[in-house]
Amino acid sequence: MAIEASIDPTALDNRLQRAASCGDARDLALAYRLAADRADHAGRTDEAGFFLTHAYVWALVAGETPLAEPLARALRHQGRLD
Amino acid sequence: MAVALEVGRETAPVTPLGNRAYTDPAFFRAELDRLWGKSWVCLGFAHEVPEPGHVHPVSLGGKPLLLVRDHAGTLRVFWNVCRHRGMQLVSAPERLAGVIRCPYHSWCYALEGALKVTPHVGGPGLNIDPAIDRAVLGLVPVRTAEWLGCVFVDLSGAAPSFAEHVAPLARRWADFADRPLHAGGTDCSFALEVGTNWKLAVENYCESYHLPWVHPGLNSYSRLEDHYTIIEAGFAGQGTLAYRPLLAADGGRLPAFTGLPETWTEGAEYVALYPNLLLGVHKDHTFALRLEPLAADRTREHVAIWFADPAALQPQHAGLRQRLAALWREVFEEDIGVVEGMQQGRHADAFDGGVFSPVMDAATAAFHGWITKRYRETGLHGD
N or C terminus: which one in chain A shows less Cβ crowding within 10 Å? Predict the structure, then answer.
């Protein structure tokens, strides 16, 4: 997965809140994927797994298979999904 | 079209149901479990989930169920409950792009029922746990069938086949049963909440005896003598020999089914398919009134109308469609007073179930005969 460590945490938080308030599942998936990338880059593996899980759930809700499949692969690779 | 006049004289005597079968909340609950829970019952209409992804929560006597049109277009019914902690999954009709997500802990189910993901179930970020076997925790399906635009379920999974259940009426209405029907949409759907036991709605619908008194507007063209009684296995009702379609100001009318036998030119039939579906067929439209039992003394009536030809859904027929829906609404609203009045009457200690006219109440008696037999089979006593 691409690492986007440069994203501003406040901007990310705002994006997550905006997507949540709109019920925009695809945007939530993308925002959580960014959060996962950021945590992963900082070496916070468990936090990354947490966000990756949320990204996967919202990608499934959005019905975005091309978005969901790489997330599922990443989770499986980390032993977080079978 | 078979005509069964005075058929009641040929049937075994039926003892009318006693008051308790209409008024006792405990009896109502037992009836839901033992009769509704073990029979094919109508749960909804197929057009309530018209496109892939549509989900429509439905209550059947308080039991939460979910109509689903999966992404391949198959209509399914599941128990509307998460396998995890029993949370109701869907609370309002919607169209889903992807999975069904439980709003509690976000367990997600495919529209085909498979449990897709159990987020954080093994701890934060860990979505697996040896104790949680997703393969056996999919949504619980309900045995489902679709006929005349209506969705039926057998909660027990053990009732005779739906084909067997509906066969007598399917034979009688073979002229209609295999044709595509075209749902009239929101202006042809409505619901009424009525202060009565569901059985009184069935009984009132079955018979034509009340028509000249409760629906005086019918007297000018649909006289009592134009009606006949219908009694067969699993349904009862009435027919008319004097159906007149609505006409527009310019003489236009809704398109009719093509190739119908002549008997339907001025004929129409109205039957209750036991226990809870009141149906009507005419040469240009069909309708269904689904009874949803809310309590011993409360019933919601869901009405939908279907047309013979998709042309009927075009804007030039909007006026006729709306008049037709208004006509049926008026008829069903006229019935509210009597079914609510009979419900009140069943709190009278002096009422012993009443009597049946062998001629005019034969269909009602047939329904009592059917339900008494079902009660007996399930250990209920309705007297």
Answer: C
pLDDT at B2: 29
Could you please report the per-residue DSSP string of B203-259?
HHHH-STTHHHH-GGGTTTS-GGGEEEEEETTEEEEEES-------TTS--PPPPTT
Residue from the list A48, A50, A61 with its beta carbon closest to the beta carbon of B101: A61
**Distance between CA atoms of B73 and B52, rounded to whole angstroms?**
5
Interface test with B, best of A54, A60, A81 (most B CBs within 10 A): A60
Contact predicate B89/B80, CB 8 Å: yes
**Confidence at B67, pLDDT banded by 50, 70, 90:** very high
Instruction: Judge: B119–A54 Cβ closer than 8 Å, yes or no.
Output: yes
The pTM for the full model equals 0.92
Residue pairs between chains A and B whose CB atoms are closer than 8 Å: 58
| Least confident among B118-132, B147-161, B181-195, B246-260 | B246-260
Q: pLDDT per residue over B298-319, tens digit each?
A: 999 999 999 999 999 999 999 9
pLDDT at A5: 52
Quote the CATH superfamily of domain B45-144: Rieske [2Fe-2S] iron-sulphur domain (2.102.10.10)
Closest residue in B to A65 (Cα) is B98
Query: CATH topology for B7-39+178-378?
Result: Naphthalene 1,2-dioxygenase Alpha Subunit; Chain A, domain 1 (3.90.380)
Q: Do residue A25 and residue B97 have CB atoms under 8 angstroms apart? A: yes
Which neighbouring-strand residues pair with B105?
A: none
- Max Cα separation, chain B? 74
**Interchain CB distance below 8 Å, B124 and A64:** no
Chain segment B135-162, per-residue pLDDT in tens: 999 999 999 999 999 999 999 999 999 9
**CATH 3.90.380.10: which residues of chain B?**
7-39+178-378
**pLDDT above 50 (res B219):** yes
